[in-house]
C-alpha cells in the first residue's frame, strides 16, 4: 500500500520540482537571438522568421496576455519552463513503459528511480538553457516526448485490431511538428525502423498506411493558418508576409534561405567526422559526460547511466532494445546529416540536438528505475550496500542540479532588455533607426511594440531591406513613412543615382543637435551603390525624408552599415546620428549624458550574474562608445572628464568580467594620459 501511494505521488512531485527550478531560474525578460523574435511574435500574433514555429505563436499568444503584473516576456519564459517540465514528465512516463516491457514492476522504488533519471535529464545543460526562455526548442523536445510515448503505446497494442489509431496519432504529431521547428522530422526514419522491428508485416496492410497519410495531412493542415494570420496581423513582425498561396509556399519551403526545404546533404559544408559529428558529440558530452568541477568524474554518471540503461534494455527485451537503439542512432545520424554545419559556425547548434537528448534522458530514467528495483531487493539482505547505491543514484540528478545552477540561473540577466531600451530611449524624437541583424532588431522591436518604449521611433532593418516584401510592407504599413508609395516611384532611384547624388540640406543647426552658430551647407554629395537593393532603399528614405526625421544607425553595424553616409555619422551613444557636415567627430555632450547617466548596465558588474557569450559580445558595443568618448575628451584636453568616464567604464564593465586581454585593460587605463 505504501509503495502504491508513493508511485501515485512521484509524477506530481517530479513535475513540481522541474517546474520550480525552471521558473526560479527563468529570464525576467527577453534575451538574445530567438527569444526576442518569438516573444514578439507571440505577444503580437505575428509571423516569425521561417520556419516560424506557428504552433508556438498560437500557444504563446493567450499566455502573453496573462501578464499577471509581469512583462509578457517573463510570463512566456515561465510557459517555456512549464513545457520543459511536461517534457521531463514524458521522459518519466516513457521510461516506465519501457521498464514494464522489460518485466520491471512499476512499484514505488521503480517510480522513484525513473523520476530521478528524468530529473537528471531536466537539469542537463541544453534542456535547462532553453527551459528558461521562450523559444521553439523546448516545444520540439516536448513533441519528441509525445512521439516516443505514442511509439511505446503502439508497441504495446500492435497486435490489437485498433492499433492503427496510434499510428494515426503518430502521423498527426509529425505533421504538427512542421509547425513547431521541424526538427522531429529527422525522427521519421527511426520511427519507421521502430515500427518494422515490432511488426514487419505492417507494410502489406492498407489501414496503417491510410492512418499515417490521413494523420500527416491533418497535422500539416495547421500550417495553413499562417496565411490568414499574415494577411490580417498588425504585428511589426510579419516576415516574408506569406499572405498568399505563392508566398506561403515560398515561406514554408524556406525559399528566402535557399529553398528546397534546406535539404542539403551533399556536398558537406565541413568534415562530417572532425567537425559535424564532433560538434554533436561535444554537446552530448557537455550534457551527460561533463567534468567541469573538482569532482568532475561525477559528471560522467548521467552518461554512464544512459549506457547502462541501454545495456539493461537489450538484456531484458532484445527486440525493444534493438528498436530503441535504431531510433536513437538514426535520429542522431539524421540530425548531423541534415544540419550540415560549416566549421566555426557563429552560433552553437545545441538547440537542434535537444530532441535526440530526450531519448538519452529516457535511457537514464530506465537505468535508475531498474537500479532502484534491484536496490529494494538488495536492502533486505545487505542494507549497507543498499544505502551506498541509493546515495549514488540520488547523487546523479543532484550533481546535475548543483553543477549547472550557476550557468543557467538567468533570473537577474537583463542584458538584452537593457541594451534595447538604452538604444531606443536615447534616440532623438521621431528618429528613423537603422539596424542590421537579429540582436539589434528583434529586442528593440519587442520593447517598442509590447512594452511601449519609444513608439515614435521607426525601425528599419537594412539586411531585410534587400527583400522586396519588406520594402512593400514598410510603404504600406506606415503611410507617413518617408518612402515612395509606388513601385514606379522607387524605380526612379536607379535613374537618379549614377556615380554621385546631391541631397539638399534643410533645417536648422539645432535640429541636428549642433551649436546654433553652426553654418550648414546647402547640400551634400553622396555616392550610393545602386547595384545593392538596400542602398537603393536607403537612398529612397533619405531623399523622401528630406531631413524632417532624424536618421540614426545602430552602432552594431559599424561604419559599414551607414555605407555612403558614413562620413556624416556622429556617435551619440549606441547609435550614429546623421548630420549634414562630414567628419565632425562624436557629440561629446550627448555621448557623455547617455553613457554616464541615461544607460543601464545591470549585471555586468555583478559577480553572481553569469555573462553569456552574446552578452559579452554586445558589451563591446558599449566599450566602443566609451573609448570614443575617452579619445574625444583627451583630444579636447578634458582630462577630468576623461577620468570620470574611465571610472564609469571600469565600474560598469569590470575588465575581468568581460575577459579583456591585459593589453586592452592597460590601454583603457592609460587612454586619458597616453
How would you sum up this structure in a few lines?
This protein has 674 residues and is mostly helical.
Strand element count: 7
| Secondary structure: helix percent | 55-70%
Characterize the largest beta sheet: strand count, sense, and whether it forms a barrel.
5 strands, mixed
Task: Supply the number of structural domains.
Answer: 3
Provide the β-strand percentage band. under 5%
Backbone shape: globular
Low-confidence parts, pLDDT < 50 over ≥5 residues?
none
Return Rg in Å.
Answer: 29 Å
Helix count from the secondary structure assignment: 27
Distance linking N and C termini: 80 Å
What structural category arises from helix and sheet content?
mainly alpha
Question: Could you tell me the mean pLDDT?
Answer: 89
In which order are the strands of the major sheet placed?
Answer: 2-1-5-7-6
